[in-house]
């Protein structure tokens, strides 16, 4: 056994334990009894203590240094790159801080859910303030002189910075605002009927399979905030149901299937290794967004879906495929990010990006957050937030400490725009196949170009390689949106 072999054996055990810890989070959001919250907080903290100790084990550092001096294989070097990054970061974070964060965010998630249900931000603000305090402490430990918010972004999108995102968003915002203004001048059809919950879930499962999700290695459950969890042979998805808005259920499912298919599509040789999961949240989001939007909301695919909707629900008030296509892509006033149309979605992200930068820098306190959110929303969207669950309490992310995560949603949209441009040139008769409900060509291309690689390449490199070497920019996304919604 070489040092590399010993190190990888240790890593497989650590990765397996991390999957178990993730399963605790999945259970908490889907099936855990409400009264178990405090106990789950202790369980999460205990798992984090074990994981942190393994990541900081001096033997790990010794094996890593030996392996780095011995290994030349490209895949092995990529494994070591991830292990070095993880090891160096873990060594900077005190163990008691890692455990405290795990315990606190487990508890805060439940408090967020209760506050959201009661539209009571004041009930959530104290625990959010504590989460932010610990996240600032964590960022200070790992920043090593960098900006604190950049240190948090780095957890989700390695080597990305707030400055680069500010530049990208400044390019995107005026064109999105102009497109929104033109779109809102038009009339858009909307659904106005009752859609049976169980029928929605049956159709959601069909669509999940249609997009390539393997139920032998996964399952679909309900959650307040849809998410995907796991990797390899255990990748689970969730959705939610509104009996007057089946698109919420159907497109949440397709979105999470994009995440799940990324994890299921990774080379099995990488399973339970650092390469055996998506390389970044931006690349991950590129898969969920291209599944949901460029494919799932396309004129071709919605033509097929329209017929499946009529077979499932009977007549529901829209009598032709083109009207249904416009309803699926309706540009409308609304509060909720996850229900936003493609034109306005990134404006929701920019709002959160600016607010959480201010929270981490200390320029904004949790006491003032709700008012700051409401003021910014009204300035950006032109109407007032009516209640906290439609505003500052709508997303779970801050309760579980995911600061620096939100901008990766827009970055994922940018990556998806680049991938879609390349896909249209690479997949023959793409729209013909989509019109038949056949996603095989599109999803196979994404798997071979992006998903199979897991963490082997750096995030921007994954996208550039898939797109023939072109560096990712926002232009393909903006052109796609202007072409699509200009035509609508």
From TrEMBL:
Residues in the active site?
Answer: 256
Q: How is the cofactor bound?
A: Binds 1 zinc ion per subunit.
Q: Does the keyword Protease apply?
A: yes
Which metal ions or organic cofactors does this protein require, according to UniProt?
A: Zn(2+)
Catalyzed reactions per annotation? Release of a C-terminal amino acid with broad specificity, except for -Pro
Q: What is its EC number?
A: 3.4.17.19
User: Which PROSITE patterns does UniProt cross-reference here?
Assistant: PEPTIDASE_M32
Annotated Zn(2+) binding lies at 255, 259, 285
Look up keyword Lipid metabolism and say if it applies. no
Entries under CDD domains matching the protein? M32_Taq
One annotated GO molecular function:
metal ion binding
EC category: hydrolase
Which keywords does this Swiss-Prot/TrEMBL entry list? Carboxypeptidase, Hydrolase, Metal-binding, Metalloprotease, Protease, Zinc
One GO biological process term is:
proteolysis
**The protein's role, per its UniProt record:** Broad specificity carboxypetidase that releases amino acids sequentially from the C-terminus, including neutral, aromatic, polar and basic residues.
Family, similarity comment:
Belongs to the peptidase M32 family.
Q: Which PANTHER family match?
A: CARBOXYPEPTIDASE 1 (PTHR34217:SF1), METAL-DEPENDENT CARBOXYPEPTIDASE (PTHR34217)
Name the UniProt record assigns to this protein = Metal-dependent carboxypeptidase
